[in-house]
Amino acid sequence: MPGDRPGGAALSATGLSKTFRIPREQVHTLKERALHPLRRGSHHELRALDDVSFEVEPGEFFGVVGRNGSGKSTLMKCVAGIYRPDAGEIWARGRMATFIELGVGFNPDLAAHDNVMINAIMLGLSPAEARRRYEAIVRFAELEEFADLKLKNYSSGMHVRLAFSVMAHVDADLLLIDEVLAVGDASFQQKCHDALQELRGRGKTIVLVTHDMNAVQRFCDRAMVLERGKVVGIGDPRSVARRYQELNFGGAADAALSGAHLGDGAASILDIWFEDGDGRRAEAMPHASDCGLFMRVEFNQRVEDPTFGVMVTDEKHRPVWAATSGLAVRRSGGFDAGERVDVGFRFSNVLAPGRYFASPEVVYYGGGHRLMDHREDAATMVVTGVREAPGMVDLPVEVTITSSNAPVEQAAGR
Amino acid sequence: MHADLTAAERLPDAHRVTGPSAIAGDWRRFAFLTVTLALTDWKLRFYGSVLGYLWSLLRPLLLFGILYVVFSQVVRIGGEVEHYPVQLLLGVVLFVYFAEVTGDCVESVVDREQLVRKVAFPRMVVPLSVALSCSFNLMVNLIAVALFVLLSGVEVMWTWLLVVVPLALLVVLATGVGMLLSALYVPFRDVRPIWDVVSQGLFYATPVFYPVELVLDVSQEATRVVLANPLAAIIVEARHLVTGSSPSAAEAMGGAAWLALPATILIGCTLLGFWVFNRIAPRVAEDL
User: Fold this and answer.
1) Is A151 helix (H, G, I), strand (E, B) or coil?
2) Does the reported pTM lie above 0.80?
């Protein structure tokens, strides 16, 4: 395997930084350089990316949002290999297809055919493969009648349709898309979304840069907010969208724990998080791995034998599973005011791929479900999987096929 | 856990994204891209003109016609030189190729800004595709030269086959200089007028319209200076191999050892072009 990097992330970036030096005076000729050999230090630095780290799991639909100038496009260009970052590492799995700033660099003097060939080859197809897919690409873009027209005669919508179509047909494992779905008419937009969903269904990983919070909430499994080149929020689309709104319109800065508090306040849930099998915090978890759900609780007064519980719901907020300490450890002991505990629920991840929310709570011993603290949707996790699994859970199964008049025949499976 | 393993096995291999470079990556993709760009470039060059590809032929032929009339009828340089028309045509075609590659390379990277800024691909594809596209022209032109040579009554010789050697060196030289110019043009836009002048100067400094014998008539030293220019040495050698009547580059310089001079300059220019292009390749998308 070329380059061994731990972990199975489809895309991972650690500590990315990128600084642009913007000269106050653009020196663009040898003449100026020769006339003023000493006048060259004058430039200011623009820190476009500042220690950006994130991971995207295989099969995930990941959103990157941020205001203009927040570093989104620079990040995309670094990930796409167009810019070289000053610091940090990027690792990607498989072939990447990029779709940056409306179009993939078409030549306006060439007809659709030549442009499609050039771009398909740039994105990694061989000329033979590109020729085979040409028909499908033009059909998808709905440009059959205009295939012989030079691209300079295309409308911007036709441009984008063609570019998107090429990208969707090159069999990339990882698609980087920078703000494109806003162009084109509504029906083609829908078509793009459907195509992306279909690609994702086939296990492709998609990174989408956008301003469109609706798109983030509709399509993304997770998203990240960039501000002045820094990651200021990463997590489920709802909290990211909220964070983005805060940045845009001011407002409370802390959106870490999103849910509302319920309960009398005898205990406070300070934090809740998911961990992978190796004990690292994670927001995305592969299906069928070992993982854990943890909460950190601080007691504000002396409490005897509290019960810790958590409710896990799916993305439509249907209850999936509830875990409680009450069954395993009936009497949890006494805790003094100011004492902090970490409570963990370890489980084997049989959840079907999708997004899940966790709502933790601390209740008094005994019946009545008297709450000390409860946080609605305080943590979220994406379960990733390679295969489609309808249903809420994907349990390990053993399949048997037994003929009623023959000896037992067994087929092992999952 | 077993299920997890099989899922991981299906994942494609991880690779590190290190940013753009001149030549890194899959060499097949590199070759496909270079050829595809060169072909479309060639197509574009004559697209929409009535005479189409004929233009690539007519350009050197017209230049040849003018030079022939001037230097055999008016100035009479080529009067007593054997096979002067063949020498002239060969010189013109080879020089025009060099001028075309280097001239077209200058803006090549900047002109393909759309591509360079939006797609990660090995940057050296750009000047190489320009050189390849011009080489298609050269091949068409050489067919015309071959016909002309046969018609003008030069004896058929086995040395004709050896012409591929100076031709190959010419391609290498032109490509190397082209890479250098395309890289320098990114930060320095006055490379264009500078190169136009240099190119014009080279036309006179190179035995294109005059035969090398004329320089030999001046002095051996002058010949050595003129042939230190690898372009001159290549043209002189090609003429020698084709006509058999004009002296080879080694003979004109007075010893094969002197060939080390143009050879060094040729290798130096090519390596310099390669090195400079490699240097600018990672940042070219930002500096455009």
Assistant:
1) helix
2) no
